[in-house]
Amino acid sequence: MKLRVDLRTCENHGQCAFTAPGLFTLDDSGELAFRRDAVDDYVSPALSETEVESAEMAADMCPMQAIRLVD
């Protein structure tokens, strides 16, 4: 499993960073740090079982529903 973040939909509310700080971080400007690595979509490397659980919780907490788990 991997996580996919739709950076066009994401509004940097930061709920993911509070829910799964090991997977999501905000930079000094309060934007999701993945924006440095991707423009439209960010797809992570393969996640461990523990990371999948954290990613699922973060996806549930995202007010914009910008986070999805993909195979």
Automatic annotation (TrEMBL):
Organism superkingdom: Bacteria
SUPFAM superfamilies: 4Fe-4S ferredoxins
Name assigned to this protein: Ferredoxin
